[in-house]
Amino acid sequence: MALHWKILIGMVLGVLFGLLMVNFSWGKEVVQDWIKPFGTIFINALKLIAVPLILGSLITGVSDLKDISKLSKMGGKTVITYLLTTIIAVSIGLFLVNVIVPGESITEDTRTELVSNYSESTQKYKDEAQNQKEQGPLKALVDLVPDNIIGASGENKNMLQVIFFAIFFGVGLILLPEERAKPVKDFFSSFNEVILKMIDLIMLAAPYGVFALLAALIAESPSADLFIALLWYALTVVLGLTLMISFYIGLVYAFTGMKPVKFLQGISPAQLLAFSTSSSAATLPVTMERVNEHLGVEEEVSSFVLPIGATINMDGTSLYQAVAAVFIAQAFGMDLSLGVQLGIVATATLASIGSAAVPGAGMVMLVIVLAQAGIPEAGLALIFAVDRPLDMCRTVVIVTGDATVSMIVAKTEGKLGEPMSRTGTTVTLPKINFLPAHQDAAPGESTTEGGEKNDVPLFHFSAFPGFCQGNDNRGCSRIPVFHDVVVDLVIA
């Protein structure tokens, strides 16, 4: 059974198990003590390899460019594309929330109950956001450069610092003479392969980890009454996220010609894992594997674009922040002007860049957006009840956006080909003989109907359908092999 089906089954069983356990007084405690830890272990295992993956893949990807101009060209395309998609996401969110006006469904009684229930939880986010607001305008630039790479690698929240170091290290390798840089490049290339193999092993446990995560989510969720009160808000966010995914599909088709079904099939395991973990950073290893092996993006591009996207591309979070800010304002009876909402676009875009790719990070950034728009920060409690399931949905959008941008950049760089699994092998052979099936011949010898010897030189033999003939993989042509032909491989 395919991996995404196993993950989907795990998700369904997790939800059903959680719904069953909430009917017992002891059910929530059992899920928290005996089921949730396995989900935590699964997430920790993915986070464990996030930093090594970024170091290995980015250093390898940057050094393989062999030219600083290629780096600046690809980097410019990547950042600009990510920023444009983020602006579009925020705009979609603002349009929908102004049309649907979900804040009108919040009654005074519901508002009071939510603020009372979640005042302690919201205070934590408010304190963290206050610390960020008190920092200088160039604090983000200062934080980009680590003073200790070991310390920066010790926490997944400092991914920008890790990315900076990896790119800086890769640039250093490019500037070295080839013979001096080769041993280091070979080391990181092998290091990256080891990490990819670890991903394969971890993903064997994905269905069980997803089961545990969703069972815990259902068991710990607030009462159904609060979800019903916030139904229109949730539907607005989900509709916006759905439109964003449709936009991605359209971009992929316009730039690459890949059909929507093929694109969704290729990225679906990463989407399901993103939905389960609510972390684009934890999903990054799987996203990279799906983009490389199932969407045809060369590793040179994916190893550069995807780690950056996991940090700065927060389209789903930006859309959610725009909807949430206006929704809270509507709930408090505030009428936001066009200028204030344009300010939300700018703030949400910039805030999303610095948002950590971990569950709940969007909450901290949302407080900054609320403060910029003059919206009471206590209104954060209005959406806290449904933040977790919506966080899961917007992470799907983030991962899909990362894959989309990687395909666009790969297409413009001439690095987008046919999907090819790592399990495939290539054998180099000097010569191949084609023998008619009905005819016996000694090894190394073939005979046509006229008795003429027919040796066909072949330089590459691929494990994929047909034989590849030519001087290199890019310039070769496929030779179809039919069932009535026996292929006699001869090493000259």
As a whole number of angstroms, the C-alpha radius of gyration is: 26 Å
Q: How many helical stretches?
A: 19
Strand arrangement across the biggest beta sheet: 3-2-7
Helix content: 55-70%
CATH classification class of the largest domain: Mainly Alpha
Biggest sheet features: 3 strands, antiparallel
The CATH superfamily label of the largest domain reads Sodium:dicarboxylate symporter
Shape: globular
> Which percent band covers the strand fraction?
5-15%
CATH architecture term of the largest domain: Orthogonal Bundle
Key features?
disordered C terminus, 2 domains, 492 residues, mainly alpha, globular, Proton glutamate symport protein, 70% helix, 5% strand
Overview of the molecule:
This protein has 492 residues and is mainly α. It has 2 domains: 3-412, Orthogonal Bundle (Proton glutamate symport protein), CATH 1.10.3860; 426-490, no CATH class. Helix content is 70%, strand content 5%. It has helices spanning 3-21, 27-48, 50-65, 68-100, 108-133, 139-144, 149-153, 159-175, 178-203, 206-220, 224-229, 231-256, 260-277, 280-294, 299-312, 315-331, 338-353, 361-373, 381-412; strands at 426-427, 431-436, 455-457, 461-462, 467-469, 477-479, 485-490. The strands form 3 sheets. It has a 3-stranded antiparallel beta sheet, with no helix packed on it. A two-stranded antiparallel ribbon has the order 1-4. It has a two-stranded antiparallel sheet with strand order 5-6. Strand 5 and strand 6 form a beta hairpin.
